[in-house]
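Risk register update: the risk of archive-format incompatibility is retired. Evidence:
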Amino acid sequence: MKALHDSARTEVSTASAAPKKPHRHSAMAWIGMGIVGFWLLMAIIGPTISPYDATAIVDVDVFSGMSRKFLLGSDYLGRDMLSRILFGTRATIGLALAATLLASSIGTAVALYAAFTGGWRDAVISRALDALISIPSKMFALMMVATFGSSMWLLVTTAAITYMPGAYRIARSVAVNVQAMEYVQAARARGEGVWYIMTMEMLPNMIRPVLADFGLRFVYVVLLLSGLSFLSLGVQPPDADWGSLVRENISGLGEGALAVIMPALAIASLTIGVNLLIDNLRGKRAAKE
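Archived output:
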């Protein structure tokens, strides 16, 4: 028995001493990281490196093609499209990121409280948010803009309210399972407070699905805000985002103008990049489990 025990200890120590293989990201994950990182960088430094002022008319022609002077051509007024897109990146990503952070943080906080307390509080919160999520997102956004007018803060608030119930649903489904775990019950038995248990015991163990949902909400918000801008209800002149760039140059669509194509491609590339990151995050979780 002693020999068997010593042999088992040796095998355990050898297994624990064996180096862990580092996780390797897939090629698609690196592509997603590169796309998202590029657009985040452009949102920060884009206006400072643009070749022209975004509102300056610098071309005698309209809807011109690529050239050394205008790498992405010009728009319907003869403005440089590269400069317009770089300036619009900050509005597109900044507004979407602010709205998603607001929706995800509020939804997760409310979900933690509802799952932890349970009972009638959980039922009331869940039914109230179910009623809100039943309103189509674009219809709700149109009602808000028609009632209060269009402004930056209103767009952020509207998008946050629209997608907060969805973030709540995902976070609550995870929190209900986490709050039943032994370490949460042990914290309850120790007499820890509600805030401590939610932030120190529950939240760290549900962060991965919350982050995956955050990326998904970000894509939804980008598409919602771009759609509103395309309908002239989003970002207003002289400011611009990618959706408004598509709208104001729509007359060049029949000519295949870059002024229409490039902002649409920017929206598509950002959403594809975020989705690649989300898929990689879920893949890592599944492989770990």
